[in-house]
Prior knowledge:
Layout: E1 6-12, H1 16-27, E2 34-40, H2 47-57, E3 62-67, H3 73-83, E4 88-91, E5 97-98, H4 103-113, E6 119-121, E7 124-128, E8 131-135, H5 145-149, E9 160-163, H6 164-170, H7 181-189, E10 196-197, E11 203-207, H8 216-233, H9 238-249
Parallel strand pairs: 1-2, 1-4, 2-3, 6-10, 7-11
Antiparallel strand pairs: 4-9, 5-11, 6-9, 7-8
Helix pairs in contact: 1-2, 8-9
Amino acid sequence: MEEPFFTLITCSRNSEKHLQECLDSAEKQIFRDFEHVFVEGKSLDKTENLIKEYKRKTKDIRVKFIKREPKGISDAFNHGIKQAKGKYLIFLNSDDYLTDETSLARIHDYLVKHQGILWLQGNLRYQTGNKVWKFSNMPIIKPLFKLLLSLFCPINHQNTVMSKKIFEDNGLFLEDLSSGMDRELFIRLLGIIDPYFVDQNFVTFRIHSGSKSSGFSGVKSQFYNLVRLYEIHRVIPFITGLVWMYKYDRGGTKSV
């Protein structure tokens, strides 16, 4: 079988609340040359049933369902990467969704028109409650990307499209980081591969408190992540640290 152009990688654990919107957004894509890899962390709710129903009714989409012990989102991402057959990878979290039915088609058009792109970067787009926020990369983030990345993460992996070759040549996500693993990867790639910024929205990132880790253990974990980033890259991400601590103080962040 010919390799698909895209692999969507979705990591899930007890994700039934928002998962159906994620699945529907993939199912309605007009560009169909993609596979969808699910790394499922032994959910206790209806997550597994929803994925299996999606697989049953989407015969023209290659769906892989992998069930394994939950060991964190980096581990799940990496397992999805190892299973992926697509040329380009998109990390579609189980509570996020492709913005509209043309998302994959628009990404495909950019990559075909501009041969050789390894890292395509779309705009920030996220949802809190019923409110959707959109920010263009072009005025500030594109020209100041390297500087901003030393302070906080000005992009998100949901609107990042990467060639599988990037991971083959530069390694996978660091599995000892419970969050911020995408930012560590972006820093690692600086000077090796530059992102190709486009003024487009592909995926909507949902911010909510449905998956949470809070209290002292959460703060301790985030402190460890900040220390590790400094040890590896000699970067002091103080803005990121303040945001993470604020999130944990409010008792909410994503986990797998």
